[in-house]
Amino acid sequence: MNTVKFTSHNKIDKQFVVTLRKNVNDYFKENNISTKANTTMVIKTIVLVSLYIVPYILVLSISMSSWLALGLSILMGIGIAGVGMGVMHDACHGAYSKKHWVNNLLSGSLYLLGSNVLNWKIQHNVLHHTYTNIAGLDEDINTKGPIRLAEQAPLKWYHKYQFIYAFIFYGLMTLTMLTNDFTRLFQYNKAGLVKSQNKKVTNEYIKMLFRKVVYLSAILGLPIWLTDFTWYQILFGFFIMHWVASIILSFVFQMAHVVEGAEQPVPQSELDTEWHVHQLKTTSDFARNSKLLSWYVGGLNYQIEHHLFPNICHIHYPQLAPIVEKTAKEFNIPYNLKPSFNSALLSHIERLKELGRA
């Protein structure tokens, strides 16, 4: 596959990186704390997993109206989105624990959505984090159906309306992941990315098929067997759960990279910039003062800090953000911050409008 090399000839950029790492390391040393999860994070994990598991158990074990079951399906969607952002995401980065088996176990929470951990690690950890907002390499800004997210992507007449219809298609994200994992694994293997993860593609196909059968049997088969709901009511609840989770996940991820001020460098074999500086130029924080939002989205509103230090548990991002912002300003490096959720959402809508016209 094509790659991009980050080579900066700017001494100030290099000094920025050295200073930033020192400042962040000093924070952990001075406070004598680990960069990984703490007790608060463990409690949060239990709460988020319960938001998904408890409603599912109630649907299977208690006779209820279809309206109550629909409400529980929505709650499951909220819960599994929270698990994805606040538990699985850290674990897949190795940021949850120093113990590999703990990270591997919690990474597996992605299977609760019917998706695949290996695909996620390649798409997110390898491609997105290495080549953030570079078209053709960062799949997060690939054209998604009728949604144009990259400046270099072909422009169609209907893209001028995408700021209106995009939010409908955002709700299909996790269902798309559920169905296209096999083709993505094929593409990653063809590009040599599966081998780079020390995996054998045949074994991964077999494991993926087995896990998806187990997931669909549990999420659809058990309700059909154990409840009085019709098969189409169960399918509708399944769709609603995924749609809610997808909308939440899409909003959070898009408001970190597809907003005003987040650059999209022209793809080329070599970029004259330092990788850490590239992350600051292509990423945005938002709503840092909202403790409830920060808790629920797993610190992904501190996306700058996450991209600079993906191996640090998000529970520490509120303390790291002022350090990163201050250091960036000292070296005259942009720090993109949207003050609230609404401002970030409006900025994303404006960016969709920009990307929808020539």
Summarize the structure.
The protein is an all-alpha fold. Helices cover 63% and strands 2% of the residues. The protein has helices at 11-31, 39-61, 66-92, 100-107, 117-130, 162-170, 173-190, 193-196, 201-226, 231-257, 275-282, 291-296, 303-308, 317-330, 341-355, and strands at 5-6, 270-271, 285-286, 337-338.
Which helices and strands occur, and which strands form pairs?
Elements: E1 5-6, H1 11-31, H2 39-61, H3 66-92, H4 100-107, H5 117-130, H6 162-170, H7 173-190, H8 193-196, H9 201-226, H10 231-257, E2 270-271, H11 275-282, E3 285-286, H12 291-296, H13 303-308, H14 317-330, E4 337-338, H15 341-355
How is the quaternary structure best described? Answer: single chain
Number of helices: 15
Largest sheet: 2 strands, parallel
* Uncertain residue ranges: none
Briefly note the structural class of the backbone: mainly alpha
Q: What this model shows, in words?
A:
This protein is 63% helix and 2% strand. The protein is an all-alpha fold and 358 residues long. Strands 1-2 form a two-stranded parallel sheet. A two-stranded parallel ribbon has the order 3-4. The mean pLDDT is 94.
List keywords for this structure.
2% strand; globular; 15 helices; two-stranded parallel ribbon; 358 residues; 63% helix; mainly alpha
